[in-house]
Amino acid sequence: MTMRAIFVVGMAATALIACSTPAPVTTSPSPVGGQRVAVIERGWHTDIGLPVDQLSAPLARLALDYPGAQVLEFGFGDRAFYMAREENLNQALAALFPGPGAILLTALRVPAPEAFGAEHVVVLRLSPAGFDGLSEYVWQALAKQADGTPLRIGDGPYPGSAFYAASQTYNAFFNCNAWTAEALSSGNLPIEPHGVLFADQLMSQARHVATRQREGR
User: Fold this and answer.
1) What is the pTM of this model?
2) What is the rounded CA–CA span in Å between residue 141 and residue 103?
3) How far apart are CA 144 and CA 150, in angstroms?
C-alpha cells in the first residue's frame, strides 16, 4: 500500500470513528419556532435536528413513538460500527467498503443548542417547501418494513435513542457528514454535498449560510 493510500485510509477511518457520538446534555426547555433545521456538530460527526412541532406525516407519526420530544435528531453511519458498543478498528476499516447503513434517531426534550451547546449547533431557516424536501429525504433514508413503518433494529446508546435500518449504503465517501450535507441540500439550502467528508467542511458551509440568512441575503 502506498503512503498516499495509507493516508486516505487513515483519514477515512478517523472520520468513521468520529461518527461514534456522546450523549447530549439535558437542560430546561425553551421554545423553537419557524421552519428551521439544526445542524449539529458532534466531534467529527454531524446530525440534523427537526422540530417535532413542524413535522408533517409521515415523520410526525414516527414522533408519536417519542412522547415529550421537542426535536428528532437524525444521524447516519455504518451499521456494524455505529451499533457496536465499543470502538473497533477492524470494524472501522471494514466500513470503508460499501455496507449496510443505519440511522440513529435521538429524541431531544430540549432544543438542540441547549442539548449540545450553541457553539456546536447552527440553526438554518427553510421555506415550507424546503422543510418538506428535507423531511422527505430523511423519511426515504429510513428502510421500511412490509407495513411501511421504519425498521427499528436496536436500542440507541443512551436514553431516548434508537437505531433504524437505513435505505442507503455507507462507504468511505458517503459517510455521516456527506449524508447530512445531502439532507440539507434536499431542503433547498445552498449546501454543496460533493466532496464533503469531514464535519468542519459541512459546518463551515452551514455557518456561511446562517450568516447570509442573518444579513438577509
Assistant:
1) 0.81
2) 8
3) 4
State pLDDT tens for residues 8-35: 344 444 444 445 444 444 333 333 335 8
Using CA atoms, how far apart are residues 62 and 21, in angstroms rounded to an integer?
22
Report how far apart, in Å, the C-alpha atoms of 50 and of each of 45, 80, 89, 93, 107 are. 17, 26, 32, 31, 10
* Cell matching residue 66: 417519542
- Give Cα separations from 56 to 12, 50, 69, 123, 136 (angstroms): 36, 11, 15, 20, 10
Q: Is the distance from CB of 44 to CB of 126 less than 8 angstroms?
A: no
Digit-coded pLDDT (tens) for 122-164: 999 999 999 999 999 999 999 999 999 999 999 999 888 999 9
C-alpha distances (whole Å) from 107 to each of 2, 24, 210 are 44, 10, 24
Residues making up the chain, counted from first to last: 217
Beta-ladder partners of 24: none
Alpha carbons 84 and 78: distance in angstroms, whole number = 10
Q: How far apart are CA 133 and CA 32, in angstroms?
A: 20
